[in-house]
Amino acid sequence: MKILINETEAAAAQQLKDIIATFDYDVEILRMSGQMGSLLSGLNIPAPPQRYLVRSGTRLISLPVSDIAYFYVRDRMSCIRTNNNTDHLLEKSLDDICAELDARDFFRLNRQCIAHYGSIVKVQAWFNGKLKVQVKPALEEDIIVSRLRAPEFRKWLGE
């Protein structure tokens, strides 16, 4: 096992090495060079959004991500359904939304729906290895997870 550290983490890395060495003798601490450290720290990975700006008639509403049950497509428009069962239009594609959301909280169930973990009520086995998902508040259409995405979805749920 190799532990990659920068100069400021040397003491913590040594403690970690001592703990790991009790069950794995092949532990090595590698120090990052200045170039490698600056390269890694230079990566600007954007944080997931905390809120979305949505339209409600002529008004603009700032909607916290914690209030969102799921994103879905209706009549080729991206929509948000909140935990209070209100719908809002969003001017982004589900692909763009999925790319910026926190993957620990949201999962792309199919081409029409991205659901929050807390909105999933029931998952049942469906035909040919697919899964049928029930969300709250309820969506009018059935939400089917494909056979190919089903193992990833089960893993995300904590199986």
UniProtKB/TrEMBL annotation:
InterPro entries: LytR-like, LytTR_DNA-bd_dom. GO terms for molecular function: DNA binding; phosphorelay response regulator activity. Pfam families: LytTR. Residues 54-159 form the HTH LytTR-type domain. This is LytTR family transcriptional regulator. It comes from Chitinophaga barathri.
